[in-house]
Design goal:
With about 210 residues, the chain is an all-alpha fold. Helix content is about 80%, strand content about 0%.
């Protein structure tokens, strides 16, 4: 089932975990695996039902709490998502994937202090977690701290020079720092890159400045 999910065969993975549950109907981890596949397929309510069954069998399943937290987030039940993700983290406090999911919920709730705190916790555990560092950089820029935002972008680009998000927000940070020529050069490079994720945004900014 895991291999089928990794290769994108959701139908095959779902069938495999259903068969596993026929053989072992009280195995919580099989419900978690099935719920994960169903959630990946976009059937959120069905996934929640399956994951709740997993938690009935094993209330201490960190993965089940994490996955149901993601499902609740997708259902826009942000309060319940926070509760579920926190339950998962109480069981696995070093899990940076779950912490990042919680940070995304805080951002969706516009609770910037909580989000920033969570992102910093992730980086304390896993300093090379580029997604968390980039999210933190974007938040720092929005909060009027372009210098630290630029540092975050630079660190991400050291690990991944092709990071389009880091390239774009680095240009914004430089502009906020008064480094207009460097910012314009970076935005022009983005516009000149076919298929760049931020090409349209960069072009619009160049017409304004």
């Amino acid at each position: 089932g895991k291999l089928l999910l990794m290769t994108g065969d959701l139908s095959g993975a779902e069938h495999a975990w259903q068969n596993a549950l026929v053989r072992e109907p009280s195995e919580a981890r099989f419900y978690v695996a099935l719920g994960t596949v169903v959630l990946t397929a976009g059937r959120v309510d069905e996934a929640i039902d399956i994951l709740e069954r997993a938690l009935e069998l094993d209330p201490d399943s960190a993965r089940a709490w994490a996955q149901i937290g993601v499902a609740l987030f997708l259902r826009h039940d942000l309060g319940s998502a926070v509760t579920a993700l926190k339950r998962s983290l109480a069981l696995e406090p070093e899990n940076t994937t779950t912490r990042h999911q919680l940070a995304m919920v805080w951002i969706a709730r516009n609770e910037r202090t909580a989000a920033t705190t969570e992102l910093r916790r992730i980086l304390a555990i896993e300093p090379e977690h580029d997604a968390a560092r980039m999210d933190l950089g974007v938040m720092l820029l929005a909060e009027g701290n372009p210098e630290d935002a630029l540092d975050a972008c630079d660190l991400v680009l050291q690990h991944d020079p092709a990071s389009e998000r880091a390239q774009f927000y680095r240009a914004l940070a430089m502009h906020e720092l008064g480094r207009a020529d460097e910012a314009r050069s970076s935005l022009e490079a983005i516009v000149a890159t076919p298929g760049h994720r931020y090409r349209d945004e960069a072009r619009e900014l160049l017409t304004q400045r």
